[in-house]
């Protein structure tokens, strides 16, 4: 599913975000990415969907060699990757239905398929009754559910989630994690960066700990491993 070999990432200001990182993620895995702020977690995530490029090393995602991937092929890579952000990133002037449907419109899916699939994912995230609402009319938890629905509407093989519960209260965070676990149970690989110690320690998935650009721990049923 995802392979990185000897990945280095140095930014223009000289910051070394990743230093010789190598890792493999298999299909249908659920992986937490943990570590202190500034450790390289976000860079690691962005490399997977080609928002950033490594300074050195090779990356393979869903059969794509990202080192050799031409610019015009990037949309094909991203069709199989759903991304969920901490700040939701919903389009404020579009309804909930339109926000989700837009993800299918950009890949020119047929209108009939767009409607069917959009309503399916709204049902999965239990927000079919909000179909005509605007994002500002929803709670933070509901907005994150819509962001997840948008991320999965094209049936991606992998979801990248960067602090998806970071702006949510504890009860809502658990609702989001139950939804993520259900999506993973259906076969989607999930890679999630988080600082939520309780979630990681309770759910016991694979844990990748990154510090100073290195993977310092890779455990199959790991714990968070850091103090609050």
From TrEMBL:
<keyword id="KW-0132">Cell division</keyword>
<dbReference type="GO" id="GO:0016887">
    <property type="term" value="F:ATP hydrolysis activity"/>
</dbReference>
<dbReference type="GO" id="GO:0051301">
    <property type="term" value="P:cell division"/>
</dbReference>
<keyword id="KW-0131">Cell cycle</keyword>
<dbReference type="InterPro" id="IPR027417">
    <property type="entry name" value="P-loop_NTPase"/>
</dbReference>
<dbReference type="InterPro" id="IPR005286">
    <property type="entry name" value="Cell_div_FtsE"/>
</dbReference>
<keyword id="KW-0472">Membrane</keyword>
<dbReference type="GO" id="GO:0022857">
    <property type="term" value="F:transmembrane transporter activity"/>
</dbReference>
<dbReference type="InterPro" id="IPR017871">
    <property type="entry name" value="ABC_transporter-like_CS"/>
</dbReference>
<comment type="subunit">
    <text>Homodimer. Forms a membrane-associated complex with FtsX.</text>
</comment>
<keyword id="KW-0547">Nucleotide-binding</keyword>
<keyword id="KW-0067">ATP-binding</keyword>
<dbReference type="Pfam" id="PF00005">
    <property type="entry name" value="ABC_tran"/>
</dbReference>
<feature type="domain" description="ABC transporter">
    <location>
        <begin position="2"/>
        <end position="227"/>
    </location>
</feature>
<keyword id="KW-0813">Transport</keyword>
<dbReference type="GO" id="GO:0005524">
    <property type="term" value="F:ATP binding"/>
</dbReference>
<dbReference type="GO" id="GO:0005886">
    <property type="term" value="C:plasma membrane"/>
</dbReference>
<keyword id="KW-1003">Cell membrane</keyword>
<dbReference type="InterPro" id="IPR003439">
    <property type="entry name" value="ABC_transporter-like_ATP-bd"/>
</dbReference>
<dbReference type="InterPro" id="IPR015854">
    <property type="entry name" value="ABC_transpr_LolD-like"/>
</dbReference>
<protein>
    <recommendedName>
        <fullName>Cell division ATP-binding protein FtsE</fullName>
    </recommendedName>
</protein>
<comment type="function">
    <text>Part of the ABC transporter FtsEX involved in cellular division.</text>
</comment>
<comment type="similarity">
    <text>Belongs to the ABC transporter superfamily.</text>
</comment>
<dbReference type="InterPro" id="IPR003593">
    <property type="entry name" value="AAA+_ATPase"/>
</dbReference>
